Amino acid sequence: MNELNVGVIGIGKMGLLHSGIFNGLNDSNLVAIAEKDKVMSMGLKKYLPNVEVYTDYEKMIKSENLDILVITTPVFLHKPMIEKANDYNLNIMVEKPLALNSEECKSILNKKINGKTLVGYCRRFAGTYSFVKEIIENSTLGKLISFQSQMFVEQVLDKEKGWQYDPSKSGGGVLIDLGSHAIDLLHYFFGEIDSVNAIGKTVFSGNVEDYVSANFKLKERIMGSMELSWSRRNYRLPELKFNIQFENGDVVVTEKYVEIYSKINNGKIKEGWNTFYKQNLTSQVPLDIGGPEYTLEDLHFIKCINEDKTSLCDFKEAAKTNFVIDSIYSSIKNESLEKIKYGV
């Protein structure tokens, strides 16, 4: 199997993370980085002498024989970069969300995609959430009834500066930032959403929402709720939690653990209380930079390219999250129940 040549656009936290992973895996090789910041570019050239460093991403795409392009830039840059990469038939991985809004997603999806695609909703690859996905798919605890979910972090407790707080560049506030992860997992667990009713509130950030509360109706009259805030004290790291009620028990899942109350014995789930930890549910990885889910995500993309398979969260799947986010924003603005409109 030949090594896949990888180029990365943007060397922030996620750019550095994926650069390190792809450069350390046996089946891929980091060959180029595009970064506009001159100080960062000089540092990259010094510490990565075997990697070509560009200040112009288009020049990198034209000059390098890339197999994979990884886009880790602010959201408003995703669409033009995706379209340019697609012109060169590259396999494209982009950090979440796919784009600013539904219209940009439709524009991307309406064009023929020439390579494999993946959007970085990394929690699909975390052991705890994958375990719960199996419980749902296998009906281990019987029929699904309802869910409550939340995602909190202590990030915004004063007016902040930066592109994340400019809706023309970020698409919005906590909903499209943290909330996109929660909504993606909602799709991963339960499938498509029928309708949503939501409220939002701005307290600290000024131009974007800091709090969102949403109620969902899914197929088969499954009901659920979601609370989002990046202004909750005592949450040093983002915490995404789902409480799920089934016919024969209840499940609480976070990135770190799964707690299950079961009325029945079924395989490794015993009657009564069960606790499973991330360490026991996560597959072994050849290297761990920032968490095994990121390595599993990158390995998955390499496998999909080599075996000509659709990735777990390709552009079409990831666009669903943008469609729901736009409906939530519409519900907040109009104080109304919104039907979810998927597709192009």
Helix/strand layout:
Elements: E1 4-9, H1 13-24, E2 28-34, H2 38-47, E3 52-54, H3 57-63, E4 68-71, H4 78-87, E5 91-94, H5 102-109, E6 117-119, H6 127-137, E7 144-152, H7 167-170, H8 174-190, E8 193-201, E9 211-218, E10 223-229, E11 239-246, E12 249-253, E13 257-262, E14 272-277, H9 278-281, H10 292-307, H11 315-334, E15 337-339
Parallel strand pairs: 1-2, 1-4, 2-3, 4-5, 5-6, 7-10
Antiparallel strand pairs: 7-11, 8-9, 8-15, 9-10, 11-12, 12-13, 13-14
Helix pairs in contact: 5-11, 6-8, 8-11
Domain Gfo/Idh/MocA-like oxidoreductase N-terminal: 4-110
Protein name: Gfo/Idh/MocA family oxidoreductase
Domain GFO/IDH/MocA-like oxidoreductase: 132-251
Protein model, in words:
- The chain is of the alpha/beta class.
- It folds into two domains: 4-123 and 292-313, NAD(P)-binding Rossmann-like Domain (Rossmann fold), CATH 3.40.50; 124-286 and 321-339, Dihydrodipicolinate Reductase, domain 2 (2-Layer Sandwich), CATH 3.30.360.10.
- Helix content is 35%, strand content 26%.
- The chain is built from eleven helices and 15 strands.
- The protein has helices at 13-24, 38-47, 57-63, 78-87, 102-109, 127-137, 167-170, 174-190, 278-281, 292-307, 315-334, and strands at residues 4-9, 28-34, 52-54, 68-71, 91-94, 117-119, 144-152, 193-201, 211-218, 223-229, 239-246, 249-253, 257-262, 272-277, 337-339.
- The strands form two sheets. Strands 14-13-12-11-7-10-9-8-15 form a nine-stranded mixed β-sheet. A six-stranded parallel β-sheet has the order 3-2-1-4-5-6, with helices on both faces.
- The radius of gyration is 20 Å and the shape is globular.
- The protein starts with a strand and ends in a 5-residue tail after the last strand.
- The model has no long low-confidence stretch (mean pLDDT 95).
- Residues 132-251 form the GFO/IDH/MocA-like oxidoreductase domain.
- This is Gfo/Idh/MocA family oxidoreductase.
